[in-house]
Amino acid sequence: MDLKNKLHILAGDILGGLNAAIITLPQALAFGVATGFGASAGLWGAIILSLIAGLLGSKVPMISGVTGPVAIVVASIMHALNKDITAVIFILFLAGVFQVILSLTKLPEIVKYVPYPVISGFMNGVGIIIIIMQINPLLGFPTSSNTISSIENLIKQISTLNIEALAIGALTLLIVFAFPKRWNKYLPSQILALIICTIVSVKLGLNVARISEISVTMPDIILPQTNLHDLITYLHYGVILAIILSSESLLTGLVCTSITKIQLPAKRLLTAQGIGNICCALTGTMPGSAATMRTVAALKTGATTRFAAVVTSIILVLLVYKFAGFVADIPLAVLAAILIKIGYDIIDTKFLKVIKIAPKDDLYILITVFLLTVFYNLIVAVGAGIVLAALLYAKRVADKAKLVDKPVYDADIMKLEQSVEKDYKHKIRVVHIDGAFFFGSATQLISHFDELLGTRYLILVYDSGDMLDISAVFALEDIILRLKSQHIKILLVINNEQVREQLKNYDVISQIGEKHVFFSEVKAIDYAKISFKKRVKKKYFN
User: Fold this and answer.
1) How many whole angstroms separate alpha carbon 232 and alpha carbon 140?
2) Under 8 Å CB-to-CB from 23, ≥6 apart: which residues?
3) Residues 488 and 453 sit within 8 Å (Cβ to Cβ)
4) Where would I find the beta strands (DSSP E) of 463-531?
């Protein structure tokens, strides 16, 4: 690579890192305040995580820091533990350790299988939570830790509305929403609103709550102090936070891959994020994940290597040292307005546009995840969404599974049946299991065999190469027992050696006998014909 190309890549990384830093600054400050950690913790967390995760992560630039979903979970943990910072920092440390452990497993690959309605419902829920929780500080009231308390406090305090806070917040909203999107590439509306509205509030001497203090010194190292009781008590919080941190990073990685067409190593991404979050915990700063908005901004501005993440951290450090006084004067109402815009941007308008024509199953999933996210618990919401999606998918597949009934005709048998008119119902049938035979379809297919009870020889054909799950094995055994009780001879046709061995190990084949299991449907039919002829002749002509 010649010097010109190297300089071009360097310039792209510097511009991309600068743009990402400008976007990160107001978001890190706002999320730090919103979680109760403080603006300094949000900003220094972004600096530390972006630097470490950037250096240790993939070659493609990934800009990291606190994000909406992460902030909501941290705020919830802070509320649950009555703002016990020592306990929360230990949980942050645990989350980073769990991320590193997750990176050693195959779990990072699972994120690609999460259904879109689950992601959409979750992101819509997070967006609404952020908006609801920022209405109070926008009106000059203290920030609440969850949606329910935010609504309750808003109703209680509405009579003490701070007009000045609302005015400066409204101006911020006007700028971030009205600023032309095409100009955002060159000057993000959030940083513009932050600068203009802070200057206006200072010049007019508005009586509004402000950040007040920002630390310009490097955070001190804080070694987590705990015992076995605390470890057991806080373990589930660490797991929950690790899942959110990891999921957000992996989803950002998918977005990054779609833009760059470069496949990112998911395990390395999680390792880097985990180590970065451990460092954040050890310095008492906010954890985070790879941030989609900031990463995309860096890529769109020309960033191509991990150096862009380093540039972001360097610029943020310079901003802290150079403009600490200005940052301290930022009104909380301005940060609230910026977060409301972030919450709005998180809402998945793409899915909402097609909601009228979307399949009902997808709507059920989205609504369930959305309501649980907003009013109950984020992790429960995602878990419930995935389980519901899996069950609905299983139902769709099971509904497609059916039995294909094919009567077998034979001239000799027809003559025999004509001579023995009362036994005209004696038949040989071949039944194919069409579609997936698994726990979802097994029970449903059992009921269909009641329609075949007039049969004397039933040839059951399973010609799929898929192994049976335990539910299907037991269902097949149930089918055999029910048909045997009706004096129906059962012949199995299984052309897959592994499935045959599986049924043998589960003693299903022993229920009908080895000689009644065939590899070929034709041989099974021939056997049934010969047996049926012998049976009828023996009964009526001897």
Assistant:
1) 39
2) 188, 190, 191, 293, 294, 297
3) yes
4) 489-494, 517-518
Q: Compute the radius of gyration of the chain from its Cα atoms.
A: 32
Q: End of a domain among 368, 393, 418? A: 393
Q: Which domain holds residue 432?
A: 401-540
Q: Residues 367, 443: one domain?
A: no
308 and 369 fall within a common domain: yes
Half-sphere exposure of 35 (CA within 13 A, CB side): 34
Q: What CA–CA distance (Å, rounded) separates 486 from 456?
A: 9
Residues 459 and 481 in one domain: yes
- Residues 478 and 534 reside in one and the same domain: yes
131 and 260 both lie in a single domain: yes
Question: Contact, 116 vs 366, CB < 8 A?
Answer: no
User: Which one-letter amino acid corresponds to residue 75?
Assistant: A
- In a shared domain, residues 294 and 343: yes
Taking the C-alpha atoms of residue 191 and residue 171, their distance in angstroms, rounded to an integer, is: 13
Residues with Cβ within 8 Å of 241's Cβ and at least 6 positions away in sequence, in order, are 70, 73, 74, 77, 91, 92, 94, 95, 287
Choose the weakest-confidence range: 72-76, 102-106, 169-173, 227-231: 227-231
Contact yes or no for 96/287 (Cβ under 8 A):
yes
Q: pTM (2 decimals)?
A: 0.68
Confidence category of residue 409, pLDDT binned at 50, 70, 90: low
Domain match, 112 and 173 both: yes
Specify the DSSP element, H or E, that contains 290: strand 289-290
Cα–Cα distance for residue pair 184/351, rounded to 1 Å: 24
Total tally of structural domains belonging to the chain: 2
CA nearest 36: which of 158, 128, 122, 142?
A: 142
Segment 315-353, tens digit of pLDDT:
999 888 888 888 888 898 998 898 888 888 878 777 777
Rounded to whole angstroms, how far apart are CA atoms 414 and 392? 46
CATH code for the domain in which residue 456 is found = 3.30.750.24
Q: Name residues whose C-beta falls within 8 Å of residue 266's C-beta, 6 or more positions apart in sequence.
A: 108, 109, 111, 250, 253
Q: What are phi and psi of 431, to 5 degrees?
A: -120, 120
Indicate whether 490 and 522 sit together in one domain. Answer: yes
**289-290/402-408 β-pairing:** unpaired
CA dihedral in degrees (55, 60, 61, 63; nearest 10)? -80
- Compute the residue count for the chain: 542
Q: Which residue, chain included where needed, has tokens 């050696």?
A: 497
Residues 261-281 pLDDT 10s: 787 788 888 999 999 999 999
